[in-house]
Write a structure and sequence with these properties.
18% helix; two-stranded antiparallel ribbon; alpha+beta; globular
Amino acid sequence: MATGDTSLQTAYCSPTPDGRVFCRGTAVCLNGQGLLALGPSGSGKSRLALELMALGASLVADDGVLLTEDGKVTRPEGAPRLIEARGIGLLHAEPGKMAPLSLIVDLSRAEPDRLPPRRLAAMPGGPVPLILGKDHPFLAAAICQYLKQGRAE
């Protein structure tokens, strides 16, 4: 297994018989890069995905994502082409394609540092950059810029 934080995989993911990993989370694709939002129910995974979709991202899957052995996010076969908008209902969303997992957002933990160290999460295919996003006031905009231009050293 790759180096990095293993707590997310333990809390939200489980292996499938075919070698992939099922995660109870939501994934979008922006600029050819996959983002996986993880956190407990009600933590804002679908909200973050909707905000990123409004900024040009496409939905990969809501409330259930598969990770391939080579580190890509994909929609489980037969998953509905819908995203939950809490308090509004289920919304149609044409899902995007499989994308390399480029960023994980943990919505269960807040970032304590103003300029945080680089964090990594252990996932299939190798370590993936990790952002602690609980209660972040402009998370979607910052992630959008991150996926477009990257993070400075």
